[in-house]
What does this fold into?
Amino acid sequence: MQLSEQLRATNQFSLAIAMLLVGPVAEEMFFRGLVFRAWHQRYGFAIALVGSASLFAILHLLSWQVLVALPLGLLLGWIVLKTGSVMPAILGHFGANIAPRLMDPILAIAGYSDSQIEAMVRAPIWITCLGFILLVAGIAVTSNYNRSR
It folds into this structure.
């Protein structure tokens, strides 16, 4: 049974609580609140950021989750450093977990058929990676633009 089928077979309320509340709070308190901060004090920013994000990714176990968790962990660690708080990381993690749940209804409202939505779900991983690269590039360009003004 594939993961998506297993998730559909579980109690949706329990799954939603775990994915949207327990996961983001517990994981961010551990990975960014404890691991990142302790490693930052001991080893410096770069090792703390890459190390805590890598640990976060590895512990997600599934290959597709690792590909998403590593860049997410890097971003959330950077956010904790810049804000000095783990709360924005918890909110960011919540947003990352809820986004896929919102996409199907949004695409359906936008007029996409079930078969078109299914085709998007099965898109090659390189498309996701390209989208992430473009997102990071857009943030970098915007950030540099705002600094030069």
About this structure: The chain has two domains: 3-111, 114-149. Residues 137 and 143 are 10 Å apart (CA to CA). Residues 114-149 form one domain. The helical segments are 3-9, 12-43, 45-58, 63-83, 87-109, 114-121, 125-148.
